Task: structure prediction
Amino acid sequence: MITVNKLTKTYGKNDNEFVALKDVSFSIPDKSTVAITGKSGSGKSTLMHIMSGLDRPTSGSVVIGKTDLYKMKANDIDNFRANQMSFIFQSFFVEANQTCYRNVMLPLEIAKINITKRKSLVLEALKAVGLESKVYNLAGTLSGGQKQRLAIARAIVNRPSIVFADEPTGNLDTITGDKIMNLLFGLNEKLGSTIVLVTHDLDLAKRCQMQIHLKDGYIESKGKLTSKQLI
Amino acid sequence: MYKIDILRRSFRSLLSAKARTLLTAFAIAVGTFALTLTLGASNGARNYGDTLIKNNFDPTELIVSKDKNFFSNTSSSQPQEYNPSFGNITSDTGNVRQVQMLNDNDLSRLGQINGVSTVRPAVSLALQYITRDGQRKYVATLQAYSAYKAPDLLAGNIPNKFPSRSIVLPEAYLSSLGFNNAHDAIGQTVRLAVKKQFDQSAALSSILSGNASSIASSLNSSSNSAELPFKIIAVTQKPSALIQPGSALYIYTSNTDLITLNDFTTTGSANFHKYLSAYIQVKNGTNIADLNAVQSKIKDAGYSAQSVIDTEKTLTQVINVLQGIVTVFGLIAVVASVFGVINTMYISVLQRTREIGLMKALGMHKKDINRLFRIEAALLGFLGGLLGSIVAAVMGTLLNPWISNKLGLGSARLLQFKLSQVVILIAVLIFVAILAGLLPARKASRLDPIEALRTE
Result:
């Protein structure tokens, strides 16, 4: 369970103060899929960053399981992220001049996974996303869809409990985007990770079990949202 | 992240930017090249100096002079007052200076100093010529044979007690004096001619007293020169320039005969029984404490004395100064390359901002990011150091024979590389590169992951 409690985030001071999140609270059950939607500047990326420990809230808390994220020291948050979370980004963020194998290996190295176990985990993750034939190809030679599949392999290789996906289909055409999301949701069912999806995509948000719609830093609505709200 | 993973990642990162890595490494290599050659040259020069001293100076002997200026190689900027009783020394640059000379009383005093075994005046006699029946006459230099020199012999042998009226002939004179080979010369007789020195002050007195004709008759007198037979007991091989530079034409005889001939040439002149320096054999001179004790006593008696150690020190000082000058140039190159490393590392941080953001998002600690970039800098230092020292070693090894030939060092090699020095040099370069990488590494570790991931 992820419990977000009275989360507020402000930037700047006095006249320059900007409130990105105001008193945001919700809970996400384990192994569920949730979409965070809203217009640009609504605070959805800030919420994702705070939920993942990349940014600190001005007030409020994020509790994952029994762990209060912001009661931990910076290094412990890093460790928690390395072992429990992973990310998929719109721009893929693959290391173009490294092989697919090396790209997927990165989270295992950071999480200090036993060296003897790494190879099988990497090959398994690449197989899960259908890139078993590209293991030693340079990431830079892959197509956009393949790069995002590689990013998914990197995201699932350390069996995280939460996967944060920030506009994962934003740089892909509709057909490829659908395939990627089918893959992601399929892996969610198979691996049982919680997927937190930040998206503008109405159809994509609809496929999630829960939607949180933000407007100017507030939660405008949560639960199963209407198409109008999602737009 | 395990250190080994950080090391591998740093290595891969450098490999992925080969051109940038190589260019930066080349910049470091230039300084390393200069420093490796400097170290090699100073090793060679030191070894050459040591060999030179070992082969030319008896470590149990002291060189003694009455004048401390005797051991000074520097020319004074002030004119020196003329003293008729002093002897002249001409420097390599042609400057003449005067030093007080040792006389028989001095030699006697020195001989009585406790711990002194023997005293022999240092004499190098310019013969008028050396010849043999039916052969031409050749100029030559006569020196006293010292068992310490132990020259390589082509033929004959030298007994412990050097026989009277005998010489050791250098190989170079064999064909000139009509010998077919070294063995032919053994037991044969040659004639050494000496001539009395022209006494300028006596000549001047004669001229002033209107008796100039007596000078001419004196110069032409047969009693002014002598031609004495000497038996060849051994023939020396041409010495290596390393063993005794410029000694290829030295003819050796006993100290007694040398002094006799020297006395003949100086009889009636101001230089009779006067010597610029003398060699003093110290009892138990292999013991440094005993040698130093005698040296102190000699100095207390008002003389200047120098041991082999002092000579070595002087030589080492010269080498150190030369080494220092070249090292400074090498260090300047290294310092310049440091800026290259800083620049390269900053560019690397800028180019990999999103990668750094991703690594941080995936949970990599600040200190590991910092370490990643410091290791990259260290690898650059290592690569540059390795490259520079290997090129220097290969070039040095190839050029050594040519340098030795040009400098007349014989079989000696000027550039002598020591693995331990190269290893230390590379270690220092790694350390310097790490220092250069500190700021870029700090910048990388402090990057905000959110901002880094937003970077286009």
